[in-house]
Input
Amino acid sequence: MTNSGSFTLCGVIQVKNDTGANWASNNPTLAQGEMGLETDTNKFKFGDGTTVWSSLPYAGGGANSSFKYGLYKLSANQTSNLTVGCHIQFDMDEGSLGGLSTGSGQENGIITLAGGKTYKATYGWQENGSSTSSAAICLYDRTNSVYLGTQNWKFPSTNQSNNTGSDAGLGIFTPESEIDVEVRIVDQDISSIISTCTYLLIEEYGGY
Output
């Protein structure tokens, strides 16, 4: 039997949707086969009935489909706020990650990161201090008051200027909700932080 007629579908199909930040903050468990859309990235996930949003992979693009990076640097040597508990006052950034706060002094250098993503951070520095003492920095989560990476040490120098660099520090982390991070001074004998060799690189992935 052939139906030669036609009809018009008047309904609207709308999937569950919200911004990436709200999905990460609410962190729901979607039902088996239920779809959730991030309205600001146009990425989506399917639920399995047991896994929370932040632990679900994005559909269709794989874990690294949303890769972004931010490279944070100093425009000039940092000569103040150099005691333990202060942070490096990054005031320049490159890449699509963004999130850098700027102003004056310690208002600089705080980076806001969205929840529900996996981040890899590497950081290094050069400083001018005593030839007989050590100093150290570490990536710090201001929101939750925890350190996120390895401590990055400068050890005593014997060169004339006492300018010493360091190996790279490393942190890999997946916050459930939005956090603010900084590179904090955790051990100190410093007179200045040298801009040309000081950096923080954060790479963002869609999640694992």
User: Anything to note?
Assistant: The longest strand covers residues 179-187. The chain has a mean pLDDT of 84. Residues 16-55 form one domain. The chain has two domains: 16-55, 68-205.
